[in-house]
């Protein structure tokens, strides 16, 4: 504990929670009230090196652990998460701000990946071809890489760590996790549960910090792969630096997700979907709908959408009546407010202004921005070009579906997109012609379940394999191909100087 009784968030090194010797600490703050919750260290270079060394040492034995034994750890972890989901959500809401219901969803979507990790016995199977030549068999082994690292963002402090370390560890790797320094408390609680479930010392380690810790993970020769979720600026840096160091890297980054609304769409369901996807989690989702492209007669729906947004309640996430919680920090709020002001300057029509909402008591100090809607938005405007990461929806108009598809395809990002229509023919045309990795049909946030993989594309992703599902098994393993021939003792084949197997 510190002198002002704020708890110090520990590091996890070799199975032990240890207090950092760092001289640099940051505060974890409740974004709804500015209440200080804890202090988090910016780990020293020696502490990062110790975490990596612990993971490297543990890999020697963990890689040989039977696959069923690994799977049973994650069977137990998923049950522990289920048993603690309410308290995990409460911790998440206190430090991140999202509503309790959304916080439970955050935990649950990560839980689904833990459940998938428990099926590693089926996922990590190789292939075999018998008698590819005379007496020759060929088969593949999916073997772990070694020490892997994960760098996670503030907006999903439960789900995204659970995207990373369960699949990496289940495939036989060891892991060093760097959570967001803005809200590490729920992540640390999940790590505690992982140890309780049976993850051995050194197999999972945690360090906290900023750029110097990220760079250390990118540079260290014992780290073989890095998974990152966060901003485009940092993700590009991580990808370039870690790739130059010879590592495998996957980076899920920023977005500007478009939802196309055709005039035949079911109006009430579509308006509800747009409002939920644009303003839920205060817009702090890389899969949030931040642009609605209204086609033809659907352009008349703007007043209805504004009316729907006005009904949403802004407040602290721990209130059952809250629909939209605070932004993560004062700096985030100031940035969103500045972009709203810039949108007005650029000539967009401010249909609903969520700046400086009226809130009681301690919430007056919170980082709140209410639902905000711009119409008349065009490419080139700041509110269109930049990822706002706040509860701001930009409305773009199009005459035809073809024009709407062209607008969406011209945007450099490719995380997710959606179409709202009751026409199967239009939906099929959309899924064929749209150049975005994840497509929703009457589904505003098309994040796939872990049986599949997160397939963001273009400017939203660097690296060719997704962060969970079958693709991530390939990311966290080396495919080794074995070609074998066994001879009977009395058989002689003679010398063969050709490349062919006969």
TrEMBL record:
Protein EC: 1.2.1.27
Q: Which PROSITE patterns match?
A: ALDEHYDE_DEHYDR_CYS (PS00070)
Decide whether keyword Signal is in the record: no
Key words, A-Z: NAD, Oxidoreductase
Q: Name one GO molecular function term.
A: oxidoreductase activity
Keyword Oxidoreductase annotated? yes
- Domain named Aldehyde dehydrogenase is located at 17-482
Which family does the UniProt entry place this protein in?
Belongs to the aldehyde dehydrogenase family.
Which PANTHER family does the protein's record reference?
MALONATE-SEMIALDEHYDE DEHYDROGENASE (PTHR43866), METHYLMALONATE-SEMIALDEHYDE DEHYDROGENASE [ACYLATING], MITOCHONDRIAL (PTHR43866:SF3)
What is the protein name for this chain?
methylmalonate-semialdehyde dehydrogenase (CoA acylating)
The species this protein was found in? Ottowia pentelensis
**Species lineage:** Bacteria, Pseudomonadati, Pseudomonadota, Betaproteobacteria, Burkholderiales
